[in-house]
Amino acid sequence: MPKSEITFGMSFLLVTFGGIINRTMIKKFTFLIILLQAVLPVKAQLFPQLGAQRAGISALTFLKMDVSPRSAGLAGANICLTGDAYSTFTNPATLAEVENFSLAGSNTFWIADINYAYLTATTHNARAGTFGFSLSALNSGPMEVRTTFQPEGTGELFYANYFTAGLSYSKSLTDQFSWGVTGKYVQERLAEFVAQTAVVDLGFLYETDFKDLRFAVMVQSFGVNSTLKGSVKLDTTFNKKTLSLDSYPTPTVFMLGISMIPWKSADGKQSLTTLIQLNHPNDNAENIRMGVEYNYKNLLFLRAGYKINVSDQNFPTGGVGIRTRAGRHPLVFDYALDPMKYLGVVHRFGLNFTLNPENSIR
Predict the structure, then answer these.
(1) pTM (predicted TM-score)
(2) Mean pLDDT calculated for residue range 235-256
């Protein structure tokens, strides 16, 4: 990783969080100091280059694909974001902040004409907590069947399809601490082969009263190994080896994040939110995500982000959010672009509708 990226990351940390450490707060934020000290060592200590050794060891890697345009615009620094309907994916602990019925949907236009759709709904009960339900579907589009003697295609087509259905629950234990969990059923279909498994997302959120400083920890996609099952006819004249279907782990990611609002205008109509997040996946190298969101009157949101130590993603991300109304109810349109060095630009669109019971027609 270039030294410029380390310098950039350190500058971001010091500018954003430098003002929060004083004599009265050292004990409270001891682990933050440890995190800052961890950035100082050389590259090999902060980012062990294990990506080449571990890449490809897990299945169902689509589970790591961001479904929230807001999060994608912030380079995936998402576990400390304020709660919305997409919390069923970003961090179920923040779902406790969604107190009204909310419905959201998004579509990711991935590379090679791959589409990834996500739909989620949440509901809140003052005593029981907040519940969420989510569905996602990824489709590869048609692909041609190719053989040794027909490399241009046999005329047959096959598809790769992925589907998830999730249930989420979140509860605020105190005014400052909340937790949440999402359980997902996951299905993979590749031609005649099918794999089914289950994964769990578990998150925790702690919020302070100092500049809306928030800390979050999350484990994403912890679950049972996945194995494709099915049968296919092979031409044994030239294919002597039998087809072996091994079991692979799910793409589990451990995340640690911090966010803060370092600036608000005197009239409270404008603010700036900064976020930083460390990701430790089980199938690739550790990486850092950083994001900044500018809020103008809760009507316009401008977002930018940057990823450190993510291969082939060396460009900043960006996004915009526009809040309007559908009748008397809030409606937010979000868009994000995520440029990649060799594969092009990924676009994400989303709509987030929230029922406002105080203004609804009765």
Answers:
(1) 0.83
(2) 76
